[in-house]
Amino acid sequence: MKSSEQAYLELCTKILETGTKKEDRTGTGTYSIFGHQMRFNLQEGFPLLTTKKVPFRLVASELLWFIKGDTNIRYLLENNNNIWNEWAFEKWVVSEDYTGPDMTNFGLRSQQDAGFNQQYQEQMEIFKEKILNDDEFATKYGDLGAVYGKQWRDWKTSSGQSIDQLKQVIEAIQKNPDSRRHIVSAWNPEDVPNMALPPCHTLFQFYVEEGRLSCQLYQRSGDVFLGVPFNIASYALLTSLIAHECGLEPGEFILTLGDAHIYTNHVEQVKKQLARKLRPLPQLSINKNKKSIFDFELMDFDLQGYDPHPSIKAPIAV
User: Fold this and answer.
1) Max Cα distance, the chain (Å)
2) pLDDT at residue 318 greater than cutoff 70
3) Is residue 80 part of a domain?
4) Is there a single domain that holds both residue 195 and residue 300?
5) pLDDT for 90-126, tens place per residue?
6) What does the alpha-carbon distance between residue 167 and residue 62 come to, in Å, rounded to a whole number?
7) Which residues are identified as catalytic?
8) pTM, rounded to two decimals
9) Residue 271 in contact with residue 16, Cβ under 8 Å?
10) Residue 60 belongs to what domain range?
11) Which residue ranges are tagged as binding site for dUMP?
């Protein structure tokens, strides 16, 4: 088995060398391959990249947001997490309530026009302030629809009932560890049209072997430079938390990607990262006094020995 980070870096190299140039919904363009799998041994260390700094606090607060079943970005903003802002912001700037400068195609324009970028940043700050301080505004424009947390914790059935998939899968792991049905799905075809962003990480499955809990995620679409490092760390953390609750050790995290792509405006950043040397993986420490994953807060996680290379900034494609 390759070291955790080496597997990721080899994926980056493969896409740069063999990826097909494709257009995409954002208008940015990508280099893409279809079908790729990486395996991460969680016994070797926590798989947070060392060739660039990945903010663990943002990974953890987003995962807690999912676990809570929340779909409103207010919780994220309260924890200084801005990774979902653009999708909520877009809903506001296309509405009749918005009266500021034209924000059409703000994702690309903010990268290409310094004057527009200043306007965009000003409007984003107004938006964030309203989300944090105006309950009615937050309800209307902060909610992203039936995204991950909703599907994990409150999947609606055709009869109007609710399924807490996450709670059920934990109970199933505890009662019947050898089952082949330890599955949580975020891909609900009925709800996809009402989501700000249809789930990229669509389905995950747990597997118990010799006292260890492993997880495999199928991800339909992976932004390899910005998104995939977060996804790896997030599901490694989720696996570790569920293993803790179930009295198991973390095993492997396996990531299976559908469309794995590098955006055309991330190529130079990827090359810079590939030129860096690997450093030792950090170790994850979890508050042992808490048992249920539904009780954890940010203060209950500690990442020890994380000494990465500096972060590498890149624009997000919306």
Assistant:
1) 60
2) no
3) no
4) yes
5) 999 999 999 999 999 898 888 789 999 999 999 999 9
6) 18
7) 200
8) 0.94
9) yes
10) 4-71+145-304
11) 25, 180-181, 220-223, 231, 261-263
